[in-house]
Amino acid sequence: MSLKLFSDPWMNKLQQLWNEDPKMLKNLGKVDFYSYIGYGLKGEEHPRGFIYVDNGKVIEAAEWDGESLNWDLRADKGSWEKWFKEGFGLAGLGKAVASGELVFVSGDYRQMVRNLNLSVPFLRHLELMAKIKTDYNV
């Protein structure tokens, strides 16, 4: 069964995959990472889904309901679908941001890519998203 992109069930699956992944927990635990991270579509006023990460572990994952976000990532649904199917490395990430395909509504993109303890898990969490059977008709 496909889950609607950034719906409650989709975000819960991301939480499960994240918390089962030792690479995520190890790298983010090293830097005591905590953040509210939102995900959505470009052009929309608000994100669709969010996760709350505390010390590298996702504590809460759901559809966005007004939470203040440290990071807010937006792209069109075609881009999300392409990245989840094809993936991209750090160079692809830079290109997506430079071209405006991926927009950081909030969050410091430059800080993230300069810190391997953040950039490696960032790319890894996109790989985890790709494991979710997703319905892009949102």
Structure description:
- The chain is of the alpha/beta class and 138 residues long.
- Helices cover 44% and strands 25% of the residues.
- The protein has helices spanning 8-19, 22-30, 77-86, 90-98, 109-114, 116-130, and strands at residues 3-4, 34-41, 49-54, 57-63, 71-75, 103-106, 134-135.
- The protein has a 5-stranded mixed β-sheet with strand order 4-3-2-5-6. A two-stranded parallel sheet has the order 1-7.
- A hairpin with a 2-residue loop joins strand 3 (49-54) and strand 4.
- Number of separate domains: 1
Mean pLDDT: 93
What is the strand arrangement across the widest sheet?
4-3-2-5-6
H and E string: EHHEEEEHHEHHE
Task: Write a short abstract of this structure.
With 138 residues, the protein is an alpha/beta fold. It is built from six helices and seven strands. It has one domain (3-131): Nonspecific Lipid-transfer Protein, Chain A (2-Layer Sandwich), CATH 3.30.1050.
SSE layout and pairings?
Blueprint: E1 3-4, H1 8-19, H2 22-30, E2 34-41, E3 49-54, E4 57-63, E5 71-75, H3 77-86, H4 90-98, E6 103-106, H5 109-114, H6 116-130, E7 134-135
Parallel strand pairs: 1-7, 2-5
Antiparallel strand pairs: 2-3, 3-4, 5-6
